[in-house]
Protein 1
Amino acid sequence: MSGADFIEVTPGALSPDACAAIVARMRGSADLHAGEIGGGIYPDLKRSRDLSISGRADWADVVQQLNVAVHDGLMAYLRKFPQTLIAPLMLQQPDTSGALRRLEAEDFATMDEARLGGLLQTCLRPGAINLQWYAAGEGGYPYWHCELYPRDPSCETLHRHLLWTIYLNDGFEAGETEFLFQQRKVAPRTGDLLIAPTAFTHTHRGNRPQGGDKFIATSWVLFQRAETLYGAG
């Protein structure tokens, strides 16, 4: 684990045809709006045209497609970094005798897909998906930022545990997702999935694409709320 930066890229998580279809639908949408950040619209910090697709019947097929792609990448992430779940949550499961036993990192390697998938669904939930269109030479999110902030009274933004991005196209220069402290730039490649932690340790920015527009789908993986994990009491 020495030297891990906890930034994982899954090549080809979504097929090129699926990516192209999403881009085409986005280009034709009448519902695009100026890209927002937590405090509102600030084009000097983020300049994009966005489309929030969660909860929309006309985009339900794309939401499902993206969540399936992210789920597969997330399962691999949990196997590589089981502390994603066991560090913040004191997880217990029955052993062969039926007695509760606290899970350890080593247990994740022997879990089958169904058991790990059940654990994932018990502890985590998908966030709202946003499609983003960055115009060549002017679009981007050059402000160094992380994904946690306390402005939301419902505390939903503080439940964000991991961020993800699926790059929907390439064929342009720059436009990387750049992580400040890890000194790492992730170059967009069609269909690749990026997963990373949301906290200040993974402060990042979206560099401006040059010579072509950049399209991405992005969201978060959130903890289940306390009342779901622990009950209303």
Note: DSSP finds six helices and 16 strands in the chain.
Protein 2
Amino acid sequence: MSAPRSALIVDAVRTPVGRGKPDGAFASVHPVDLHAHALRSLVERTGIDPAELDDVVSGAVAQVGEQSGNTARWAVLAAGFPESVPAVTVDRQCGSSQQALHFAAQGVMSGAYDVAIASGVESMSHLPIGSQTLGRDIAGPEVARRYASGLVPQGISAELIAQRCGLSRTQLDAYSAESHHRAAQARDHGLFTREIAPLKVTLEDGSVREVYDDESVRPGTTVETLAGLRLAFKNDYWAERYPDLAFSITAGSSSPVNDGAAAVLVTSERAAERLGLTPRARIHEVAVTGDDPVLMLTGIIPATAKVLERAGLTIDDIDAFEVNEAFASVVLAWQAETGADLAKVNVNGGAIAIGHPLGASGARLTTTLLSVLEQRGGRYGLQVMCEAGGLANATIVERL
């Protein structure tokens, strides 16, 4: 019986995260081209011949319109890779590119791949939230019968989590302000420089602008400024349906709407040695799990427990965490349940500040996690992502 193979992360890169609005930096950039920039930048940084790639496994959430038709294949061609390089697009909602990383790593571990890219993209300027469903009944009557009380949107799930965990609006706003503070500090100290591949954008007047930084970071954010924002999800319908719900979430304690892409190069040890590549980390363990689809965003709690158990580690063995900040209540509920030290969580800011380009966020978290481990000299990093339908991915990487 052959020895198990390791999946190594050679490098990871991301675009800056743009605001997903008409005035956002990437609002006029086709998602295929945005994705291609991340792929091309990764290959240029590592010096690898793209003909070596066994597969490109990518995530995208809105797989309609400009992100339809296996968008990863078009990004591979737009990046200038050989036509022989295959690609596939996967959907595990917000965890799509983290799942892409799992699939790429599992391909390497099994011997099916030697060299693969895991990546992701989302252009929320082109494809707003809900573009893929268009108000249709995606669950069907059997699910409706099983969950007779009714499924709810993610914002209501986040409110229910805050209520269940006794989180006040002040706590949510304080956490959110800290995310912006940390991200601004990291940006100002050049801590994102290695992970970001700047992108040149042609403006309407024909001039060219090079984008270096994430656009959603607001360094002046305070608890006081966030306290002035209106509630995001309270209306007559939800207030009547949940009369005892103390609504507390605003746009300030939620992730914004964004555009971005990210890519991670994964190889076997044999391939890294043959190609002269120096890996930055090893995939130590992965896990995926399901949870209550009504609360929906709590899956990160059992996913964290599962991946730690599989790895033979405890929460205290982890040196850095990247927990996707879909909403502040999600991270604070996870922290309360796991006992993780918040000083180790999203130390360079999280999605509330940096942004959450859905299908790209899993690979973005990996890119940032590698940077944090290297900046702090840590060994183990854990990233975990909540996903629609009550799903969650968890990944532990070991810095080399």
Note: The chain has a mean pLDDT of 96.
